[in-house]
Amino acid sequence: MKLDDKVYFYPERGMLDCNTYVITGEITVVIDPGLEQFLPELIQDMRRDGLDPQDIAFIVNTHLHLDHYWADEALKRQSRAKILLHPLQRQFYQTTVVETSRFFGLAPVEVQEDELLPDRLDVGDLEFEVLPTPGHSPDSLCFYCRSEGILICGDLVFSHSTGRVDLPGGSAGELKQSIESIAQLDIDLLLPGHMSPIKGRENIQHNFEFVRQQVFPWL
User: Fold this and answer.
1) β-strands 20-23, 7-10: how paired?
2) Percent of the chain with pLDDT over 90
3) How many domains does the chain fold into?
4) Is the predicted pLDDT of residue 3 greater than 90, yes or no?
5) Which domain holds residue 84?
6) Is residue 201 predicted with pLDDT exceeding 90?
């Protein structure tokens, strides 16, 4: 689904899947490919939107929980893209990849970076700042395009909810701090890892206020 000229949205398909975002420009970046079992449908939807997997340059993740990264290696094989992991994702690999998979009674799927993810992701017309936002997981990141007011936030915050904090490495205090920091940004399009995007600065600020009042006390 095309959200604007440069951003595409592919909603989660079931349990333990996530929203996938594709950023296009001089290069094409896929953020959070999701589960491998749903990859054929994702590629089919991308082709329907005129996106060729062979054009994908980079695969990146908001964090390395299984519902977000398990298709990384499979997509790399089909696209020849490079996987970029942030230094925090390498630092907390044991926690987010290994321990979290075992938390769900599953064997971890290994992922290997081709390069490290820099602090800025430049796709040509758009540049995304890579912002560490721990809480849901210690390696969580947001991708923020300041010029367009676009925030891809993973499991930091959703419509009227937040990411859970009971998985290995989770922290309610850090999640609250990360949300408060992100809430200070000028955001016109909030793209979460689950549920629907939120459009419009006023709607997004109302959502932050709802989260403060109704969700923070329960974290």
Assistant:
1) antiparallel
2) 94
3) 1
4) no
5) 7-218
6) yes
| Cα separations in angstroms, 36 against 66, 75, 183, 202 | 10, 8, 32, 36
1 inside domain? no
From CA 118, how far away is CA 68, in angstroms rounded?
19
Residues 110 and 98: their CA atoms lie apart, in Å, by 9
Is pLDDT of 4 > 90? no
Residue type, 64: L
Residue 36 sits in a domain of what CATH number?
3.60.15.10
Work out the mean pLDDT of the chain and round it to a whole number. Answer: 96
**CA pair distance 134, 211, nearest whole angstrom:** 17
Tokens of 189: 């399009």
Compute the radius of gyration of the chain from its Cα atoms: 16
Q: How do residues 133-170 score in pLDDT, each as one tens digit?
A: 999 999 999 999 999 999 999 999 999 999 999 999 99
Please tell me what DSSP assigns to residue 2. B
- Residue 168, CB half-sphere, CA atoms under 13 Å: how many? 16
Two tokens, residue 180: 């408060």
> Any bridge partners for residue 84, and if so which?
115
Contact 16, 35 (CB under 8 A): yes
Count CB neighbours of 152 within 10 A.
26
